[in-house]
Amino acid sequence: MTHHATQPTAPANAPAHAGIYRYDAVDRQFVAERVAQFRDQVQRRLSGVLSEEEFRPLRLMNGLYLQLHAYMLRIAIPYGTLTGQQLRALAGIGRRYDKGYGHFTTRQNLQFNWIRLEDTPDILEALGAVDMHAIQTSGNCIRNVTTDQFAGVAADAVADPRVYAEILRQWSTLHPEFTFLPRKFKIAIIAGDHDRAVIRAHDVGVKVKTNEAGAIGFEVYVGGGLGRSPFLGQKTRDWVDEQDLIAYLEAVLRVYNRLGRRDNIYKARIKILLHQTGLAKFTEMVEEEFASLRGPRYHLDPAIVAEIRRHFAPPPYDDLAETAVDAVPGTAFARWLETNVAAHRQPGYAAVTVSLKPAGGIPGDATSDQMEVVADLADRFSFGEVRVTHAQNLVLPHVRRADLAEVFAALDAAGLGAANVGTIADIIACPGLDYCSLANARSIPLAQELSRRFADPERQKAIGDVSIKMSGCINACGHHHVASIGVLGVDKHGKEAYQLTLGGDPTLNAAIGDLLGPAMAEEEVADAVEKVVDLYLARREPGERFNDTLARLGRAAFKETVYAAG
Amino acid sequence: MPLVKDGQPVENTWVTLGDGDAVPADGAIIVTLARWTADKDALSTRTAPVGVEVPGTTPAADLAADLGRLGVIAIRFPIFRDGRGFSLARDLRERHGYGGEIRAVGHTLPDQYQFLIRCGFSTVEPPDGKDPALWAAAYRSITVAYQASIGEETPLGLLRRRFVGS
């Protein structure tokens, strides 16, 4: 059987209203060509024509990592939006080629952890059939652009950030100049004051805004990133015209491609360049480059923006009155309404967050069966649309309030009814040493233990807005730096150990948490976290947030409690 | 080593000189930037064309004044992962209007061939021992592009275009 790029004729039948960018024949041809190219590369590797060293960059450009036990395939979910049909296809891939589940990540993507190399071309072909791929989910290129999971839903946004995320997705796809950067490059975009995408933890963070004339422009932050040396993005420009978005980003990328460090993998991100160059000098270099790039060639035509915007038109909502939902106080449903259901700009609708954080479970994991349940609910109740959040949950973005009880019952029956979104039990964790070849320590067993400790809904409610985020190594995929309570796995004399950080904040007022004290053994971590939480509960003023109590009492008080002998 | 141009192997008619090598009386030569800077007037009196080889770290502005006198600019890739050469080529073409040959030398992969072309490279010297046929195979492996590039002078349209001629 030969495989060659053909012009796919069967449309992927995306539901007419899901807020995704709809492929046409040109986009489909591109993905088909890419699959054919990768199939050839895998053949060359399996037959020994390509060495592992030569194959590595090629497989990484298709999202394929070699992990501890098997290949891991990371699938791109552009800006975290997908259709029920696409989620169903992912469920099928998980069942056929993995062990019947997948793992949703802090970058709004999906990872399969048990993949065989020889299956990958067929998997990519199956993805291509529903207009998906794994391009640029790895490698030193511009990665999947992430955004607010409530894009187009939240009332506080001035525009739908997915429009610009899609423009950036296209612009960055196989970019000829920026595919061999010093290191990976991540862009996040929001369109309101409420930052649900942690934009200041990205290489570039973009905030869409409007000026007094009502025109759209962008505020740009550069040089954020967690990892070994955490930095928050700094504002390099308060206003970039809509038409200059591409030119400005090309200028930033070009300065970085030229001057970013290539001699040390730990100093290669743009945050280090910005830090070592200084904001003023760095901004000056970008401005100089921007001045030369600006012009007709890089002008983002309003007609194109309008064309892309058409793909993200709001679905045909019913004209509903704002309705209250009846729930018996104290029931699981009533709790879920409080924690997992968010306001919607459209009267009579709500955005439902599906928690992938059951007590004792693995954060972000979903079985193929569960994915199918969510896909079906999306098709029945949410215009065929699903979102993935950076906190490793799923969202049904447009559910009629009148349907909430039925949606909850279906989720609960599938083990997806945890009412803990935004609570201390909504833990973010990377895969850790159970899967990842970079990790120093396991994340999953601790995340499971902590979620069991904080499983009581009354206690969750009492604690309020306190977050736990966990990374199995300094690469900080679990965002521990910006957690109220961060847990970091380290290697201590050849043993797994954990450090706690306190006082991080992922919003636009971003803050990096401070190290509490020496690393501790795994069995000590959950007790230590409980001591921190108990001290906060005992000493907080009415309504006082965790970081404010921490600032008022000082870190020493918490350190004393945690490390006290006894 | 033969070169690859437009997906086809072509003969390399240029001789690359080390800094200690004598300059031949005729024939096209490529010299280091240091030698060019020191001897540019003497080298320009020859009737045969002259070019320079530079690392990807070279600022395009360092070459800007001499572009009219250089028949080829060869940009060396120490390792395929070092993408600075892409920016230099694009800068030479786009900002400085260089119209001569830009050649990729050193360690590149055939899978980078389309990126090289789209950043303004005209020729590639495959690494030693690599079959030029691999570059021929990679020449049109992807026929859709999502951004403006050298040789496609239309402004940024729907960001997405088919390659000319595919």
Q: Any key phrases for this structure?
A:
heterodimer; A: 566 residues; alpha+beta; five-stranded antiparallel sheet; 17% strand; disordered N terminus; B: 166 residues; alpha/beta; eight-stranded mixed sheet; two-stranded antiparallel sheet; 5 helices; 10 strands; 22% strand
Explain how this protein is built.
The complex is a heterodimer of chains A (566) and B (166). Chain A contains 17 helices and 20 strands. In chain A, the strands form 4 sheets. Chain A has a 5-stranded antiparallel beta sheet. A 5-stranded antiparallel beta sheet of chain A has the order 3-14-15-12-11. Chain A has a 5-stranded mixed beta sheet with strand order 6-7-8-9-10. Helix content of chain A is 35%, strand content 17%. Chain A is of the alpha+beta class and 566 residues long. By secondary structure, chain B is of the alpha/beta class. In chain B, 24% of the residues lie in helices and 22% in strands. Chain B contains 5 helices and 10 strands; from the N terminus they run ββββαβαβαβαβαββ. In chain B, strands 2-1-8-7-6-5-4-3 form an 8-stranded mixed beta sheet. A two-stranded antiparallel sheet of chain B has the order 9-10. The A-B interface holds A 26-27, 29-30, 33-34, 36-37, 41, 54, 57-58, 140, 167, 170-181, 246, 254, 257-258, 262, 292, 296-301, 304, 307 and B 57, 80-84, 86-87, 90, 95, 109, 111-112, 114-116, 118-119, 141-149, 155-160, 162.
Q: Helix proportion of residues of chain A, in percent?
A: 25-40%
Tally of individual helices of chain B: 5
Radius of gyration of chain B: 16 Å
Mean pLDDT, all residues of chain A: 93
Span of the ends, CA to CA of chain A? 69 Å
Percentage of residues in strands of chain A: 15-25%
